[in-house]
Structures are given as C-alpha cells and as structure tokens.
Design a protein that fits this description.
This protein is mainly alpha-helical and 246 residues long. It has two domains: 29 residues, no CATH class; 192 residues, Growth Hormone, Chain: A (Up-down Bundle). 80% of the residues lie in helices and 0% in strands. The chain contains twelve helices and no strands.
Length: 246
C-alpha cells in the first residue's frame, strides 16, 4: 500500500510538467530516450548500417565486376549485361513504391529476411548462369533484395524507431553505403583472383547470410512489439495493489 501511495504521488506531481512527466513515464516502462546510447533503436541503426554495406557493395558497386567477369566467361556483349543492369535498377525503383505497404503486411523482420534471402540467392546464382535470360532473371531477383535493403527500406525501418533523432539515425545507417565500396569490393576482387568468380560469388553470398540473418533476428524489429512485451512483463501479478487516479 505504501508503494502504491508513493507511485500515485509521483504521478500526480510530475503529470502536470509535460516533458518531464513523459521522460519519467518512459523510464518507468524501461524505455530509454532516443538520446540515450542504450535506446534499442541504435542497435537497429547499426543493423541497417551493416545491411547497407552489403546492399551497396554487391548491389551497386559490384556490377562493374559482374560485367567484366560475365563478359570474360560467357563472351557476352557489354550492351547485354548493361541492359540487364538497367532493368535491375528500373524494376528496383518500381518495387520501392510498395516497401511501406509490404512492411506493414509482413512486419519488419520478415520483410528484411525476405530481402536478404533474395539478395543472397541472386549473388550465388550469378556463379552458375550460362544464358542471357538467366542473367535477366537473376538481376530481377536481386532487385527484390535491393528494394528490401536499400534507402526505402532503411528509412521506413528507422522511421518506426526514431522521431527526434531520425535524421541522424538514417545518416549513420546510410554511411554503410560508402563503406560497402571500401570494404566489399576489394574483398570481392581478392576472392575472384584467388578462387575464381563462381566460387567467390558463392562464398560472398554465404558470408552475407551468416552475418545478416543473425543481426536481423536479434536487432531488427518493430518497436511496437517490443513495447507490448515490456508492458506485459511490467504488469503486476494478480492480487497486487492497483492504483488508479481519480
């Protein structure tokens, strides 16, 4: 009874102070403010940074390597491979329009996992294609992965977690796009020189899946589901004192 009276007094004293009352309410729910390094949204930001690193590394900067190697291995004209790349970008731009709706229908985690699966499969399939139609099909599959891991997806995901620090979070996450060119491409070139293009693409797809799948499962989610689980955990057991403001 004493604890309930104390909580009731705290609520009445702070409830009229606007922002202070909101901060205390958030703290009592165990939700850190966006300015705190402990806020779960920053883990989501880092996960989006890693996602952008792989997405831009293989889905943007990597096309120069794909063109050179596919032309060398299959003797295809550069215009054919470039045309498939153009179709990839155009189809990706069309798919981005539906990103928000698909996230609302599937949920953030399943949406990202689907994109990672499409991207990983397309990278691995580049190692075994032998006909132009297969190239177009693989690039169209890759476009699904790109739309689920690039700017449209990242901004929608972080928009669920951030309000006041949304711009900073998106900027930090999209730094992974530049980092992808710095880290992924030299590594991919090294693998191609060491083990060949086909093996390098399979290994790259495996590395991406091993890193992104656990990160997505652990850190990427919907803040509403996190809040619901915290509220359920914070509910008092049956028979405990329940206070209500009059």
């Amino acid at each position: 009874m004493t604890n309930c009276a104390y909580d009731l007094g705290i609520t009445r004293r702070l409830g009229t102070h606007g922002g202070a009352g909101e901060v205390v309410a958030d703290a009592r729910r165990g939700v850190a403010a966006e300015t705190s390094p402990h806020y779960p949204g920053w883990r989501v930001t880092f996960a989006c940074f890693v996602m952008a690193t792989f997405c831009w590394g293989f889905g943007f900067y990597g096309h120069g390597i794909y063109l050179a190697e596919l032309r060398r291995l299959n003797d295809w004209p550069a215009a054919l491979i470039s045309g498939a790349t153009t179709a990839y970008y155009l189809f990706s731009a069309l798919l981005v329009v539906f990103v928000s709706d698909v996230i609302a229908r599937l949920g953030v985690r399943r949406f990202v996992l689907l994109g990672v699966a499409c991207f990983g499969a397309s990278i691995a399939l580049l190692a075994i294609i032998s006909a132009p139609w297969q190239l177009v099909a693989v690039y169209l599959l890759m476009s699904f992965g790109w739309s689920a891991m690039s700017v449209g997806a990242i901004t929608n995901i972080l928009g669920l977690w951030f309000d006041r620090r949304r711009g900073l979070a998106i900027s930090l996450a999209l730094t992974g796009a530049s980092f992808g060119g710095i880290a992924i491409i030299p590594g991919l070139v090294h693998l191609v020189n060491k083990i060949g293009f086909a093996s390098a693409m399979v290994v790259s797809a495996a590395i991406m899946l091993v890193i992104l799948v656990p990160i997505t499962l652990l850190w990427i989610g919907d803040p509403r589901s996190v809040e619901r689980s915290r509220q359920s955990a914070a509910e008092p057991p049956p028979g405990a004192c329940r206070c209500r403001l009059s």
